[in-house]
Give the backbone structure.
Amino acid sequence: MIIIGSDHAGYKLKELIKGYLSEIGENYKDLGTSSEESCDYPVFAGKVAKEVVSTGNAKGILVCGSGIGVSIAANKVKGIRAALCMSSELAEMSRRHNDANILCLGARYIDFEAAKSIIKIFLSTEFEGGRHERRVQEIKDIEENN
């Protein structure tokens, strides 16, 4: 299951992404927003992040104008490793080395074709584990000690 959300600036790209997810056979749950009317990205980033954590093995996709705001907001939720990815290579590394569970995209900086490539890699790349497991655990330890 893919949990997806956006603010007003990411709405159009989010709607295209939903079509792409259906096309590739991925189930998704859209937590909003439902229009281009101005709204606050932390609301939707928080909803998606909390849903990803509560479902255990879900991944999320968040879209805002730059991708920065939703990534900052989502990473405030314990258990989230949200990564802003502007290329397929970054998406691969976010999964392989960081076990990222939310992909953040900047609608003003990438087009739909780039988004599809990034999403495909993000969803198909497995966490490498090994030495990276220790580092991901260190991230979890930071969460526990704050």
